[in-house]
Write a structure and sequence with these properties.
Layout (H helix, E strand, L loop, with lengths): L4 H8 L33 H14 L6 H8 L28 H14 L3 H13 L17 H13 L14 H6 L27 H12 L25 H16 L5 E3 L7 E3 H13 L3 H14 L1 H7 L1 H13 L12 H6 L30 H4 L17
Antiparallel strand pairs: 1-2
Helix pairs in contact: 2-4, 2-13, 4-5, 4-6, 6-8, 8-9, 8-10, 9-10, 10-11, 10-13, 12-13
Amino acid sequence: MNVRRSAAALAAIGVLAAAAPATAAPSPKVTVPAGLFGKGDPTYDGVWRQSLALLAQHTAGEKPADQAVKWLTGQQCADGGFASFRADTGEPCGGKGAQEDTNSTAAAVQALAALGGHDDVTGKAVTWLKAQQNKDGGWGYSPGGPSDANSTSVVVGALAAAGEKPAELRGKGKTPDQALASLAVPCAQQGGGALAFQPDKKGKLEANADATAAGVLGALGQGFVVAPGKSRDKAPACTSDGKATPARLADNASAHLIGAVSKSGHLMSAMPGAENQPDFGNTADTVVALAADGWTKQAEAPYAWLEKNAAKWAQQSGPAAYAQLVLSAHAVGADPRDFGGTDLVRALDKLGPAPAKQAAAPEKKATEKSGNSVWWIIGVGLVAGIGVGFLFSGRKKNRP
């Protein structure tokens, strides 16, 4: 899950992990509606960033504003799916209208299921998601599109949040676990243990950090919100021994992520036309993934790096980025209101309708400092031209 995943979504539709459309200047043709978080053009990430923002507020102990929740539920299409953004909800989806996608739909389900009281909306969305499952057990970004690790994982998280048993779902043949396993890079190969976003044209699997972090959650049947738990003792190592299970796939993927952040504390991202630079979004996703798999101790270093360096990135990137950081803090049991001197919850609240209920927070002035590393987000125009990493929040991307 991450803000960059919505950028992947941008690439997928011509749009997921993980640069965020939320940072782009508002389009002169699109008016940002009341109730929506952020001021950037919502065309490619409106539902994604709204879902992550509401989920982060709820996780931080706040009750999101009714206006913000109604905006999200009002985006649902007649058949249950969600598009990235419907400028005119009176117009039907599909055809020349807004195009539904699995990432926006799954993100909305996770948010609304957490808030409760929206069974009619989530029920229709779950039915729609089930109908989009491919024969290989996975999901693509668009209905009928080839399965990818990110889309499969965010849908699994949504189904689990709605009380379903995604591991048992084989609507057209195989299960989601089998789809994710088919994207795992063998331990003996370069990038062993990681997941690929999709196979390349020759069928080769190339390690992708965004897909790997998402895949850990998918293999474990977890969504964006991970509760802090007891840390496991021994750090994982990629292994092909024994029976191939979702738990082992998650451990192998975690081992890859731990190795990737071991030296610097963060992942790197190389955007087209730019030099390698820190990847804040996927580093936040890595923190959540490692915590979900029980490697909380190994998640501490990348979280500490984020605390020191990520506030400026979130300020530039918008609501989904703040939400990612709130969720990463929650995963390791940290206080999102004291994130290296920044109150992430207050900063997120300022970008949308005021929550109906404010959680108790210490009376201290937050500062918005960051370290020397700043990831400058490129605009939607460039991202839209990148091939297929979010979404939603994100569920923006270095994807093949």
